[in-house]
Automatic annotation (TrEMBL):
Keyword ATP-binding among UniProt keywords: yes
Organism: Thalassobaculum fulvum
Family classification: Belongs to the ABC transporter superfamily.
Top-level taxon of the source organism: Bacteria
Source taxonomy: Bacteria, Pseudomonadati, Pseudomonadota, Alphaproteobacteria, Rhodospirillales
Name of the molecule in the record: ABC transporter ATP-binding protein
Any coiled-coil regions, as ranges: none
Domain ABC transporter span(s) in chain numbering: 4-231
InterPro entries linked to this entry: AAA+_ATPase (IPR003593), ABC_transporter-like_ATP-bd (IPR003439), ABC_transporter-like_CS (IPR017871), ABC_transporter_ATP-bind (IPR050166), P-loop_NTPase (IPR027417)
GO terms of molecular function: ATP binding; ATP hydrolysis activity
Annotated keywords: ATP-binding, Nucleotide-binding, Transport
């Protein structure tokens, strides 16, 4: 696992200031959710940590080392499952293991373990186009975590799924992270999802995104969405988000 740090990070696209200076440290093994109004720079922030983009100013680092590009030590899952359409489920999950030079027998064992862990038994040979949205995201999650990346970056990973499937996927994520721990950054529009999954919820202002609230989720696990302390925490985040919107 890794400590992810952003210090004085800004990102400007031609004429558009997407992120105002952001300072944020997510400690090793912690789970931070990032919420904020549409277009406030959440995906931009995540892409900077993934190494898919460079800041205009400031520094993004993992364990003190500047992030210079994407790497196997940071797994990424987007809203649209990023699976290779020509590879079956098993080969998609295996991809990062082969890249990392994991020996064949060990890779076979790990792929089988992940297929079971994400409930895709019987679909090893299926192509991505043959999967439902939820199944494809199960495969994408397994693919991101199979190389034990240490950091997991999630950009609205369950945003395209129906509520029941989304809740199932949230529980699946909790289970797989208990077996394969990682530092997690989750971008979501869904306050309930943020409170269900994260240790901490970061609220960004409207664009250019600045951190306007940083709330610790002190709801013990297993979390129950209808429990009074959960509902109260959710209301606190919604209030912070509402206050952030009013600053627009
Ligand atoms: N590659 C790019 N080129 C130009 N502008 C961009 C680029 N990427 C993002 N932007 C702009 O930066 C701002 C922030 O975008 P970003 O996608 O990070 O927001 P977001 O908070 O993730 O939005 P949403 O919640 O709607 O997904 C937007 O105004 C967007 O149009």
């Amino acid at each position: 696992m890794a400590t992810i740090a952003l210090s004085g990070v800004t990102r400007r696209f031609a004429g558009t200031e997407a992120l105002a200076p952001v300072d944020l440290t997510v400690e090793d093994g912690r789970f931070a959710a990032i919420v904020g109004p549409s277009g406030c720079g959440k995906s931009t922030l995540l892409r900077l940590v993934a190494g898919l983009d460079r800041p205009t100013a400031g520094r993004v680092s993992a364990d003190g080392r500047a992030i210079g590009g994407p790497g196997p030590e940071r797994g990424v899952v987007f809203q649209q499952p990023a699976l290779f359409p020509w590879l079956d489920v098993a080969a998609n999950i295996r991809f990062g293991l082969d890249e990392a030079g994991v020996p064949r027998a060990e890779a076979d064992r790990r792929v089988a373990g992940w297929i079971a862990a994400v409930g895709l038994g019987g679909f090893e040979r299926a192509l991505p186009k043959q999967l439902s949205g939820g199944m494809a995201q199960r495969a994408a999650l397994a693919r991101a975590l199979a190389p034990a990346p240490g950091t997991l970056l999630l950009d609205e990973p369950f945003g395209a799924l129906d509520r029941i499937t989304r809740n199932e996927m949230q529980d699946l994520l909790v289970r797989v992270l208990s077996a394969t721990p990682a530092t997690v950054l989750l971008v979501t529009h869904d306050v309930e999802e943020a409170v269900y999954l994260a240790d901490r919820v970061i609220v960004l202002s409207p664009r250019p995104g600045r951190i306007v609230a940083d709330l610790t989720v002190d709801v013990p696990g297993p979390r129950v969405r209808t429990a009074p302390e959960f509902v109260a925490m959710r209301a606190r985040v919604e209030d912070a988000l509402g206050a952030a919107m009013e600053r627009a």
